[in-house]
Each structure stands twice: as C-alpha cells, then as structure tokens.
What we know:
Structural class: mainly alpha
Number of helices: 1
Shape: rod-shaped
Number of strands: 0
Strand content: under 5%
Radius of gyration: 31 Å
Order of helices and strands: H
Largest sheet: none
Amino acid sequence: MNPEERALLERTLKVSQENNSMLRKLERRARWSLLWWFIKMALIVIPLVIGYFYLQPYLDSAIDNYNSIRNFLPR
C-alpha cells in the first residue's frame, strides 16, 4: 500500500467516524423528541378526557334541557 492510498484510507476512516458520531447524536435527539412529543400529547389529552368524564353529567343535563326546550318551539 503506497502512502497516498494509506492517507486516503485514514481520511476515509476519520470521516466515517465523524459521520457515525453525528448519526448517533441525531438518533438520540430523535428519541428525545419522540419522548417529549408523547409527554406533550399526554399533558393535552389526559386533562381533556378527565374533564369530559367529570363534566359529562352536567353536559347530559344541559343537552336534555336544550332538547326539552326545542320540543316546545314551533318547527
């Protein structure tokens, strides 16, 4: 192996190691991003679901009142 080929091979090795390092960082960042997305969605969806179940009896009575009033109105 001549010196040019060896230098080229060493340069290629160095660049591939840098690429591997960058790809690992990107993969780690993507995992964290996915985790934070799930946390944010949970912080949005869970209170909405709990609120719906908590307010459901009140909503049902309001809908019943609305329907009873609507029955008295002429069509």
